[in-house]
Amino acid sequence: MKVSFLGLGVMGYPMAGHLQRAGHDVTVYNRTEAKAKAWAGEYGGSHRPTPATAVEGSEIVFCCVGNDDDLRQVLAGKDGAFQGMGKGAILADHTTVSAEVTRELAALAAQKGLGYLDAPVSGGQAGAVNGKLTVMVGGDPQTFAKAEPLMQSYGRAVTLMGPVGNGQLTKMVNQICIAGLVQGLSEALNFAAKAGLDGNKVIEVISKGAAQSWQMENRGTTMLEGKFDFGFAVDWMRKDLAICLDEARRNGAPLPVTAIVDQFYQRVQERGGKRWDTSSLIQLLANP
Amino acid sequence: MKVSFLGLGVMGYPMAGHLQRAGHDVTVYNRTEAKAKAWAGEYGGSHRPTPATAVEGSEIVFCCVGNDDDLRQVLAGKDGAFQGMGKGAILADHTTVSAEVTRELAALAAQKGLGYLDAPVSGGQAGAVNGKLTVMVGGDPQTFAKAEPLMQSYGRAVTLMGPVGNGQLTKMVNQICIAGLVQGLSEALNFAAKAGLDGNKVIEVISKGAAQSWQMENRGTTMLEGKFDFGFAVDWMRKDLAICLDEARRNGAPLPVTAIVDQFYQRVQERGGKRWDTSSLIQLLANP
Predict the structure, then answer these.
(1) What is the pTM (predicted TM-score) of this model?
(2) DSSP state of B156
(3) CATH homologous superfamily for A169-286?
(4) A258 and B184 in contact by Cβ < 8 A?
(5) What is the distance between the alpha carbons of residues A74 and A250, in angstroms, rounded to a whole number?
(6) Quick one: which of A24, A174, A195, B167 could link to B118 by a disulfide (CB 3.0–4.6 Å)?
């Protein structure tokens, strides 16, 4: 199938590669064109200098950029994708953005006779490289049915969560869980260290019971070692938490601990931890 | 082996039963004697009206009571276990108490020529009934080696965590993890409901990734349904968190979110939720 991919960051680059390797005819666009050239050199697809030209003739246009403003620009801005897409084509957005901008752009797409799916992912860079992302999709079932087989090329679990916006809202639930959980784990592991316990032995024992979590099993040891130079960066987490807190103002859900943890992440940023993994919250406790 | 078990609450009753069924000669004591009679009727062991008489001739005395004061009373009080235990016998305490009282009673035991193990458990009533508890033990290796095979009769994982007190400290790490984690999960699932998402579908999707936890998998659905009439009670959790917060004052570990969650549990108690499961934190958010 002729498709396009807009945005070749740490996620988009390998995702677009999976589509090309799965036998699709992929044309890419990236703000920094050198990366688009490198991608075409590596995978053998095409590249174009603007979103509008990159999407010409494509049945589905995938997109993974930075934030709300980037997304508005690449879709609805000058030379944006919506200018080049043919009637009946589908825009599938993998960026984590607000439900608000999603509904705004989906309405604009509908006016132009385009389908729209919001499809944020989790699983990080490793999930994108290995084709094992969790994809949380919002949109109508017919549109989803067309895009879903292609998303399988980089997705381990691709699920329709309801109408447009529900993909983003599901991703927000995921991030809210992680905020409180990582803070609790940080307080616990720092307490273990202060109490003179063997932290790794503690993790081994308590990960068999009610305190168990993916974060404990995958980040516990590196947290104890103070290693944060990898994983999902604090800057990205704060972008996501801002979206969560903003949406909660609208729907009225109280987020007392999420709001505090967002403040803690601000302190991590101030300490130079903008690119540190989300698990770096423990650093504030270990070295207050 | 001739052993004793002091304290036949929801945990101790089945634990003592496992010991008797494993072929040991168990004598029990319980503050309310009727329950000790019922136990002996069910399992075929003996019972005595005081700790001091119940421990006579036993090589190992197990104990599982309520809190620091109960433990002091049953071990070092009038007609307490220490009065009846023979030199070289071992006291293995399964109560979750402070590391402080543990060290105090272990020192007293040493003066009397007795061995001492602190061995708090996790896994709840179901774990006790099914013999699948996690047992976190503090004490010296020789003493542990004698008691460990008997603990296996109700333990799925029995681990020596270091010297006396380290069992309790490990249990504290476990409870600190759970406090932050359950609050994060509560904020997330309540947000999902407010956002109009299908909460169970959200759990199914996000439990495959970085937000996954035992609590999400085992409590997520009941939290969405507002069912809390089971599990580890808020009263017990507050007892444990008081121990954690107190110990943290001594070792200097900051517990900002744990302290707030303890306050939230206080509000759950005030609402009549003293016996509700720990996952009832979501109730404060759903019905503020």
Answers:
(1) 0.96
(2) E
(3) N-(1-d-carboxylethyl)-l-norvaline Dehydrogenase; domain 2 (1.10.1040.10)
(4) yes
(5) 26
(6) B167
